[in-house]
Design brief:
By secondary structure, the chain is an all-alpha fold. The protein has helices at 7-16, 27-34, 38-50, 58-70, 74-86, 94-105, 110-123, 127-142, 146-158, 166-177, 182-194, 202-213, 218-230, 238-249, 274-285, 289-300, 307-322, 326-338, 346-358, 364-372, 377-398. Helix 12 (202-213) packs antiparallel against helix 13 (218-230), helix 15 (274-285) crosses helix 16 and helix 19 (346-358) packs across helix 21. The longest helix is centred in the C-terminal third of the chain and has 22 residues, at 377-398.
Length: 399
């Protein structure tokens, strides 16, 4: 790993380098887990699943969840079932997932009831399974689980697994919508459009769609576009209809997309005067990872930089990332996701995002969830393997 030039760069690099000179804080937890301590096994699994203090790795999480589940942990059985359902870290195995989720649901926890119901609803088509899903959603909803209440409302609205009941669906949607639940806002709006279970009211529908659209829900953006195209509850406007259709097709409002560049909050703003920029460029050329990061950030702040500048920004971020600068890792990940300055590669993007989280970048968790949702399970698993291999290489280089 390249040495940093400035004292500030050295301090920052050392604070985020993946190799730790200090005693591994997870050593005691790992020792207890290996000795059969169920609580330690569960805690270690959760660390690997979230990437908290370790390189995120669903396969390792599944291993420890499996041992904790064998020891009787319902929470571990639930989480392992979810991994088998998604095929993350383990082969996708629906019968195995259902068996594990069934075991966890026997404890009656609302979250576990919901997870089982969700898998039954999305993987089974027989009436008995769908009726069971509705019953589980109802039990979870009665325990205060908002997503379960909305899912039950969808079944009631469609008459799936239960008798169709628009009025109860509307009541459940309204309760969740009052809490700002996006799907509930959108679906209640649809009931108002159609006059199902409520009096038809296009203005109320538009207000509900707008509340969800303002937070980027694609379906709500599209539905709002329909109202504007037809002038239902809002002034007719082809321009606004086209705008909302476009945003809905993109999967959210412009603000829902992550920014082109994410700054390191620990640093002062980069210089913008001519002398400061020249000094920054010299430091970057000299191998200072902080200067490399700041210079790349300024390039990317241009919005859509010249392709040659985008390539340079990617090169600068890669060097800073290899030196251990976590925000540089996160920004390099964004370039790979978008194909800016580098060939688009979701696996490489996710790899750098996993490493950014393990290296202390606070924003990695939210970005990880957003981008991994667009990837296949195989891509996510491959990204984690690459991240662990690179982390291991960094540790070997330090030792």
């Amino acid at each position: 790993m390249r040495a940093a030039v400035s004292a500030l760069a050295i301090a920052l690099a050392l604070s985020t380098l993946p190799a730790q000179a200090q005693t591994d804080p997870l050593a005691a937890m790992r020792t207890a887990a290996e000795a059969g301590d169920m609580a330690a096994q569960l805690a270690l699994a959760e660390r690997f699943e979230s990437g908290d203090g370790v390189v995120q790795n669903f396969a390792r999480a599944a291993h420890w969840y499996g041992l904790a589940a064998e020891a009787g942990s319902l929470q571990a059985a639930n989480r392992l079932g979810r991994l088998h359902h998604a095929g993350l870290g383990v082969p996708r195995d629906i019968p195995r997932a259902v068996a594990l989720l069934e075991r966890a649901a026997k404890g009656g926890a609302a979250e576990h009831l919901y997870d089982l119901a969700l898998v039954l609803e999305t993987t089974r088509t027989d009436d008995a399974s769908l009726a069971r899903a509705a019953e589980l959603y109802r039990r979870a909803a009665q325990a205060g689980h908002t997503d379960a209440a909305v899912s039950l409302a969808v079944l009631l609205q469609n008459g799936t697994g239960v008798a169709q009941d628009f009025e109860e669906a509307a009541q459940l949607y309204r309760q969740a919508a009052d809490q700002g639940h996006l799907r509930a806002l959108n679906n209640l709006g649809l009931l108002y459009v159609r006059g199902n279970g409520v009096a038809q009211d296009y203005e109320q529908a538009a207000a509900l769609f707008r509340a969800a659209a303002d937070q980027g829900l694609p379906q709500a953006l599209t539905n709002l576009g329909v109202l504007y195209e037809n002038g239902f509850g809002v002034p007719q406007s082809d321009d606004l209809a086209a705008l909302y259709y476009r945003r809905g097709g993109q999967g959210g409002t412009d603000g829902a997309q992550p920014p082109h560049a994410i700054y390191d909050p620990r640093l002062a703003p980069p210089p913008t005067d001519e002398a400061g920029l020249k000094a920054l460029d010299r430091a970057a050329r000299g191998g200072d990872p902080v200067a490399e990061f700041q210079l790349a950030y300024l390039i990317l702040q241009q919005g859509t930089p010249d392709p040659r500048n985008a390539i340079r920004a990617a090169s600068l971020l890669r060097r800073a990332a290899e030196a251990g600068h976590a925000p540089a890792m996160a920004n390099l990940a964004m370039l790979y996701f978008r194909g800016t300055g580098v060939p688009q590669d979701y696996v490489m993007g996710q790899m750098w995002l996993v490493l950014a989280g393990s290296s202390g970048f606070d924003g990695a968790t939210g970005l990880n969830a957003q981008w991994s949702a667009r990837m296949t399970a195989d891509q996510v698993n491959e990204a984690q393997k690459r991240a662990e291999a690179k982390w291991s290489d960094w540790r070997d280089a330090e030792n």
